[in-house]
């Protein structure tokens, strides 16, 4: 798919038009299509608005043109803005449109135009790698009398990085092994001028990453530690680490998942895809910040060599952890990755993002990520970034009471799971224990990272959640 910006209106070669129904519509000045907008008044469109949450999309056929109206009165709610535009694209594509004209009034901000273009990219996304019949390529032409060219390019770039993350997650586990994920990350880093380092299982062992290796050892596919480094502010020694959970497939280990739960477990690397996509976006935008992405990539499988409930693991930090349930493997890989970020990369702040707990889905569903942090700075920046990009977060209490059950092991420093209640919070606080006092925030994206049924504007599967949120967070921190 592609997006270009023009400041001269022309419908030549276009087979569809997505029309924002808000403010000034410059296309109404073109005599050949003015009658359409006269026949369908803005008030008539407003009367058909089904809800205040999604806005609405009405589709019309006018001659050989497909006309899709998108109510963007919701534009100050960036979640609704992106989703409404994405749904408009899906409606146009279902009408067999490929060349889509998008007129934008001059009263939009640059930020809103960027979000509109993100919605265009998200709505046009199709994962058809394994289909014999490929989806047609969609091309967008954004027109306005005001120069929005930079905003269009920014939105296009963020949409591309989000869709890259979706591709990584949507690829089946047998094809997206830890080695392949490392190769994909390295290839993308080279394209964006981002430095990278890939550590194999022997180098990981030398660093003493015992909890990471324990999870990995049940698979014949070896683990990889993926490190991407972007130096956007070389005169500054401060580095922010983005740590993503990278379980490329999770069977649950000996505490094995049921068939319904296991079928979507290629998605357990959603955090890894998010930090890879975010660093690439940050580099492409040239944000003045130093950012390192760290991914402990492995599989959690069952074999004669797999780790067991009751095992005691020595982590890279030197602390020990008693394994209670092998299906709570993500935190074991993350604690070593976080330790690496603070000890080897000297990060002053760490944000980890992971499809970590079923409790997150139960409590917050598929739209909100759970945020656990006692850093006022990171909490404020992440919440502001959430409002700016439309990826929703909800702060959970970071109360030490939730960590107490994790400290009751009689044979190790920690149990790696606690009681039945508050598991999402407890998991985040356990990972924080290995951040060595640095600014820390944990994002549990188990719900929003992967949709088992589509939402308006989104098809079933990976969402790329976290790419835009982390990008906006680093942009704000750099200001």
TrEMBL record:
Keywords assigned by UniProt, alphabetized: Aminopeptidase, Cytoplasm, Hydrolase, Manganese, Metal-binding, Protease
Cofactor: Mn(2+)
Annotated HAMAP family: Cytosol_peptidase_M17 (MF_00181)
Function: Presumably involved in the processing and regular turnover of intracellular proteins. Catalyzes the removal of unsubstituted N-terminal amino acids from various peptides.
Catalytic reaction equation(s): Release of an N-terminal amino acid, Xaa-|-Yaa-, in which Xaa is preferably Leu, but may be other amino acids including Pro although not Arg or Lys, and Yaa may be Pro. Amino acid amides and methyl esters are also readily hydrolyzed, but rates on arylamides are exceedingly low; Release of an N-terminal amino acid, preferentially leucine, but not glutamic or aspartic acids
GO molecular function ontology, one term from the record: aminopeptidase activity
Enzyme class: hydrolase
UniProt name for this protein: Probable cytosol aminopeptidase
Domain Cytosol aminopeptidase per the UniProt entry, residue ranges: 325-332
PANTHER family linked to this entry: CYTOSOL AMINOPEPTIDASE, LEUCINE AMINOPEPTIDASE-RELATED
Active site residues according to the UniProt entry: 257, 331
Presence of keyword Protease: yes
Residue positions binding Mn(2+) 1: 250, 327, 329
Binding positions (Mn(2+) 2): 245, 250, 268, 329
Domain of life where this protein originates: Bacteria
Pfam families the UniProt entry points to: Peptidase_M17 (PF00883)
Chain's gene name: pepA
Species this protein is from: Hydrogenoanaerobacterium saccharovorans
InterPro entries linked: Leucine_aapep/pepB (IPR011356), Macro_dom-like (IPR043472), Peptidase_M17_C (IPR000819), Peptidase_M17_leu_NH2_pept (IPR023042)
EC code: 3.4.11.1, 3.4.11.10
The record's free-text note on cofactor binding: Binds 2 manganese ions per subunit.
Assigned protein family: Belongs to the peptidase M17 family.
Localization of this protein: Cytoplasm
Entries under SUPFAM superfamilies matching the protein: Zn-dependent exopeptidases
Broad class of where this protein is predominantly found: cytoplasm
């Amino acid at each position: 798919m592609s997006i270009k910006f023009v400041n001269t209106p022309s419908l030549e070669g276009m087979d569809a038009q997505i029309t924002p129904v808000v403010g000034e519509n410059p296309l109404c000045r073109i005599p050949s299509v003015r009658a359409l907008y006269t026949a369908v008044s803005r008030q008539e469109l407003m009367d058909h608005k089904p809800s205040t949450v999604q806005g609405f999309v009405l589709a019309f056929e006018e001659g050989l043109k497909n006309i899709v109206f998108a109510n963007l009165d919701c534009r100050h709610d960036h979640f609704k803005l992106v989703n409404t535009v994405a749904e408009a694209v899906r409606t146009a594509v279902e009408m067999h449109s490929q060349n889509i004209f998008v007129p934008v009034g001059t009263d939009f901000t640059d930020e809103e135009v960027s979000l509109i273009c993100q919605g265009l990219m998200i709505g046009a996304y199709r994962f058809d790698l394994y289909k014999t019949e490929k989806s047609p390529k969609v091309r967008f032409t954004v027109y306005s009398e005001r120069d929005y060219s930079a905003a269009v390019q920014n939105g296009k770039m963020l949409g591309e990085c989000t869709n890259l993350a979706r591709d990584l997650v949507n690829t089946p586990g047998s094809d997206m092994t830890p080695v392949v994920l490392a190769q994909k990350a390295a290839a993308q880093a080279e394209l964006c001028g981002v430095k990278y380092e890939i550590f194999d299982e022997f180098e990981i062992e030398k660093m003493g990453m015992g909890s990471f290796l324990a999870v990995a050892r049940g698979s014949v596919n070896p683990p990889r530690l993926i490190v991407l480094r972007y130096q956007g502010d070389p005169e500054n020694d401060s580095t922010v680490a983005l740590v993503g959970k990278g379980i490329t497939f999770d069977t649950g280990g000996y505490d094995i998942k049921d068939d319904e739960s296991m079928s979507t477990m290629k998605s357990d690397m959603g955090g890894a895809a998010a930090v890879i996509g975010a660093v690439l976006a940050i580099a492409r935008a040239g944000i003045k910040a130093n950012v390192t992405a760290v991914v402990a990539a492995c599989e959690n499988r069952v074999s004669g060599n797999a780790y067991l409930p009751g095992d005691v693991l020595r982590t890279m930090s030197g602390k020990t952890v008693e394994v209670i349930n092998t299906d709570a493997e993500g935190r074991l890989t993350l604690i070593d990755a976080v330790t690496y970020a603070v000890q080897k990369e000297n990060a002053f702040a760490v944000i980890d993002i992971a499809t970590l707990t079923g409790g997150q889905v139960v409590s917050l569903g598929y739209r909100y990520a759970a945020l656990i942090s006692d850093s006022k700075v990171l909490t404020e920046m992440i919440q502001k970034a959430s409002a700016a990009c439309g990826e929703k977060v909800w702060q959970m209490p970071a109360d030490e009471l939730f960590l107490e059950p994790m400290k009751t092991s009689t044979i190790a420093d920690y149990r790696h799971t606690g009681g039945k209640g508050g598991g999402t919070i407890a998991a985040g606080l356990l990972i924080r224990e290995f951040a060595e006092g640095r600014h820390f925030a944990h994002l549990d994206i188990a719900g929003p990272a992967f949709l088992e049924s589509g939402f308006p504007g989104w098809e079933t599967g990976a969402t790329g959640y976290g790419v835009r949120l982390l990008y906006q967070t680093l942009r704000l921190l750099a200001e």
